Amino acid sequence: MAQPSAESTYLGKMPAGFGMIAALHGDLDTGDGVGKVYYRQDASPATLRQAAEQINRAFPEDDEVEPEHAVVVTWVDVASRQHHDHSRGDGLEKQRNSFQLVIASAETTSYAILLYPRKGMQFASTAVGGSSQAMQAGFSKGLVKYLVFSTRQGPYYRITTERETSVRALAEETNSGKRGVWVYEIGTSPYFTSVAPGEVTDLPPDTGLESRVSEEATSKRYPGGGQQVTYSPYEPEEEVYLHTVQYQPQVVVVDDGDINVDVFSYNSETCANNRNKCSTFADCKDYASGYCCHCRPGYYGNGIQCVSEGKPQRMNGKVNGRVYVGNSPSPVEFNSNDLHSYVVANDGRAYVAISTIPARLGPSLQPLSALGGVIGWAFALEQPGYKNGFSIIGGEFTCQAEVTFLPAQEKLTIKQVFSGIDEHDHLVVSTTLEGRVPEVLRGSTVQIEPYSEIYQYSSNLITSSSTRDYTVSLDDGSAETRTYQWRQTITFQSCPNDEAARAVLPTQMLSVDQVFVMYDSNNELIRYAMSNKIGDVNGEKEENSCFTGRHGCDTNAVCRPEQGTQFTCQCAAGFTGDGRSCYDIDECREIPLACGEHSVCNNQPGTFRCECNDGYQFASDGHTCIVDRPVDHCAAGSHDCDITERAHCSYSGGSSYICSCLPGFQGHGRVCQGNERTKSQCETHRDRLLGSTEYGPQPVPGQYVPTCDSQGAYEASQCHGSIGHCWCVDRNGLEIPGTRTGPGRGRPLCIEQGPTVRPAVGPTPRPDVYPLPPGTHLLFAQSGRIEFVPLEGYNMKKTEAKTVLHLPEKVIIGVAYDCVEKMVYWTDITSPSISKANLQGGGAIPVIRSDLESPEGIAIDHLGRTLFWTDSMKDRIEVASLDGTKRRVLIDTNLVNPRAIIVDPVNGNMYWADWNRDAPKIETSAMDGTNRRVLVKDDLGLPNGLTYDPQSSQLCWADAGTHMIECMNPVQGDRRKAMGAIQYPFGITSHGKNIYYTDWRRDAVIMVDRQAGTETDVFLPQKQTRLYGITTAYAQCPSGKNYCAVNNGGCTHLCLATPRGRSCLCPNNALGVSCVESEGGQVLRWRERGAGIEVEREGGRY
């Protein structure tokens, strides 16, 4: 922890040399037991609402602000040290001030709210050296870098002056419309460089002050520059607990009558208003000082998170690190590596796997089974009278550990942040490694001896330490034993209101044995496995099988001890069976109206989840679905698009809106990245004339400054505001002769010049290749190229059609679009291969180049980040991750000529067409290939194309044999003709009320009104050759979600949506890879191979 600066470096100095928000800057004294400083984080609705009232009152002309977080700091009865020491000699003793600072943050803006006492400032000066100076208030950024090796004072803002009257005015005046309350905007993301004061300096009429300022206080204000006041020691009403950290003072809440702290004081909350903060499987109970949540029988946890007793627990997360190995001068760095863990809760066995660990580091991480140690502690098998970590603190905590390797004293820091249970009932963890580890040579194996670790428990803090031995066996048969010391601290937030809940044994012992570690260099995987028990520090052993873990109960069952060594197995909540074999209960099917009106029930292993239909949202109770009233989030500023410098928000009706990245940026609109383009000629010209001051750009009065469009080009018409003249300019900003108009005659009509250079896209730069502009487009394949036609509403803007990708000598069959990363994917039968390219620029990127013969149809699950395709020569349907890894065959039977394929990721369905001339058919299955069935087999000819409209739930196909387009609802089976008498359709896509298809005979893209059944427009590309696949490139991803959209659905490898949830599948080449497979939530297999261990679970049993 950094040491604070010496007082001499900042007392009496504003600005100081370091960053500072000074509510009242001076030498304040809290050493007499009376003065105190308190702080807290606060995101309660009441506090945020009150902060919003102060901010919005101070800035009445701005859009309303809704803070998301607040930090409250309160100084109570603090004295100036000179007064406490009687050094001033004016006879004033124990003069004290109370004041408060609130930092309230919205998504992109932060505000400082300063509140000063109702009865005025009791003192206004402070001792500095041997003199007395006025106290100060303001903001300072401190020293900032200047040139290469020097610094200079950064921006600052002073609220007070050198005079004491300015300090006393803090309690008398305002900039927010409320006496003694001052509000400042202190920065807008990403630039925190300026301070803007509130704009309301007028005070309300004095008639409203009686409730705030007593007559006595008013009449006695500032006699002789101060006020004689008698203070009693402050006694807090209630204590608020934060995450405990080292050096943290006591944290309490202030509600002092002499300061307007009631605006931001903490009020005791009750279950009536907070029941929804408890777990679904917990009850809320009120206490004298507040409420607490308690897990119901059959569940365990801290009440905020509860999990079913006996149910296996899964964890997922990311690992980041910067680790030096041995004496290496350069570290091994890694980011966002996957961590997956699986714990058999009823026997304490934990498995952990971390992917993509380089071979340079992997062997040396083998001794650190401790990476899974805290996971083992959280779900350790409990001995009688003892509790594992999750039972005590739930799933939100931070673990920081320091590992010291002996004898060379290498040190490694491990920080693991557990952020609770996600919507899949998986624990989420983020891990960071930093430091140095001794080298373990490649090919060496590591054996870790069983060890014990004492955990010491106190309020909001748990500590442990141990010494661990491990043996490194080298390739030559030699071995050496090494040691490291382990110290860890776990911080968490407990419920302070229930004294009984704190009755945790002060010490417990974690016993760890059967430790297995292995680094798989071929797959860059490191795996740990261990058995964990929590119990008595003396290590007393229990003979009952429930406490040894050798009971044979199903992994979804809890072992119930009985007399002596007897026990029974009982299926966990949400499962049924005899305890030896347990099966998931489908609550959605077996419990009528499990979810209320306007909602959908989704079954999950051991439980179920309700989700509101489109157009509805959960009410404040967290259960009832109510109408989602239309809100123009773009106008209200409540959208989640990226900042206006990088993205644009477009209102699309109802409460919907579309986020799109501006030119020069890439992404899905909510996050836009890319190369920040260099300034254009116009922007350079403009910024040079504007200049720059510490207050921002300031034009010289009377000077002409050019205007630039959103892409940096000169606007076609330019005006000089001071003289009233306007004129047209060319692309270089030069005036076009004869176009100038005089004052009062308006702007001339100028021809847009367009940008000077268009960036080329594609593997072969060509002058006729263009990046995809913002908006929704049609993408279609045509003889070695992919082209786009912009859509305006549902109509084709044919004059703006361009080539977006040039791929000579390729025959592109299928095209698909990933709306998240703005990538187009295509199949090529000449290579054969599957490739992709970014439509904002760049060449073709191979995705899959092996084991293909004739890839044709292609589809993207933008939620689950997977790719599906058909191969009409291999007669199969496959899936893979978007980078081509984790490849798996889903269907390879009863296929003859599969071509078109589409997916409905929100509902978990997959559809494909087989144009087998002898028996054409259209089939469907879940996206994992299960529940396969034929949808249409009669009256088909050559069904070439498929499209699905999620808004109308219509599946439509184009048939080159029957010369028709037909549609149906796959659930209802109401087949109908949408368009007849067409010629030879190949690809088909839809957008809103329209269908668009490519036709081989007409060499055109044809638009059809699906509802009217009429052809409404035709686009003929400039090059008249055969057209193949077509797809819609949406400006904004379609609404909806599935269980694979968050954290890969908790799967170790492939996550594939199904109508009932999702399946976790292993790739076909998963041998040697740690992988968990499940279907419908039921675990089928966990594989760990190597070093003499292989664990494989089938049919719900280990």
TrEMBL record:
Compartments where found: Secreted, Extracellular space, Extracellular matrix, Basement membrane
Extent of the LDL-receptor class B repeats: 822-864, 865-907, 908-952
Domain spans labelled Nidogen G2 beta-barrel: 311-544
SS bond list: 719-726
SMART domains (UniProt xref): EGF, EGF_CA, G2F, LY, NIDO, TY
Gene Ontology CC, one term: plasma membrane
Region span, Disordered: 203-227
Pfam families assigned to the protein according to its UniProt record, in alphabetical order: EGF_3, EGF_CA, G2F, Ldl_recept_b, NIDO, Thyroglobulin_1
Organism field: Oncorhynchus kisutch
Gene3D superfamilies (alphabetical): Green fluorescent protein (2.40.155.10), Laminin (2.10.25.10), Thyroglobulin type-1 (4.10.800.10), TolB, C-terminal domain (2.120.10.30)
Residues covered by the Thyroglobulin type-1 domain: 679-750
Annotated keywords: Basement membrane, Calcium, Cell adhesion, Disulfide bond, EGF-like domain, Extracellular matrix, Glycoprotein, Repeat, Secreted, Signal
Domain NIDO positions: 23-189
Residues covered by the EGF-like domain: 542-583, 584-626, 630-673
Domain of life: Eukaryota
One of the record's GO molecular function terms: Wnt receptor activity
Name under which the protein is recorded: Nidogen 1
Predominant location category: secreted
